[in-house]
Write a structure and sequence with these properties.
Blueprint (H helix, E strand, L loop, with lengths): L1 H5 L2 H4 L3 E5 L4 E7 L12 H18 L6 E12 L6 E12 L3 E9 L5 E13 L2
Antiparallel strand pairs: 1-2, 2-4, 3-6, 4-5, 5-6
């Protein structure tokens, strides 16, 4: 998974795996100018990308990857404070794990543990062709 991820947007954004388990996925990412909006703060879309990445990876860990893929179905996010530099930590925990959908709560915090963004992501579990 890590090798494949490095060649995707995950690698492009500098997202790193900190914890991977069935009940919790933790990702870390640096906040650098390439992830800023023109105003010089973290782009909200980057927070959403980080949240959906955590939820999708968590879902993939909970299915048979030979038979199923996890794809984002719906996501919402509340951006709580601006961030200009440092690191983010996104922690995804399950709210619902069904056969066809999973719902994850994602908390994105800064180095001091202060929430930067909260998100909920629904992931569809689809059969691979």
């Amino acid at each position: 998974m890590r090798e494949k991820a490095a060649k995707s947007v995950i690698g492009l954004m500098g997202i790193e795996f900190a914890e991977l388990s069935l009940d919790r996925v933790v990702l870390e990412m640096p906040v650098v100018p390439k992830v800023h909006q023109p105003a010089g703060i973290l782009h909200g879309g980057v927070s959403v990308l980080l949240a959906e990445t955590a939820a999708s990876i968590a879902s993939e860990l909970n299915v048979d990857p030979a038979r199923y893929a996890a794809v984002g179905l719906e996501i919402n996010a509340n951006h709580l404070r601006p961030k200009t530099d440092g690191r983010l930590t996104a922690a995804a925990t399950p709210l619902h794990r069904g056969r066809r959908t999973m719902v994850w709560d994602i908390r994105i915090a800064d180095e001091a543990g202060k929430l930067v963004c909260i998100s909920r992501c629904t992931v569809a579990i689809v059969e691979k062709p």
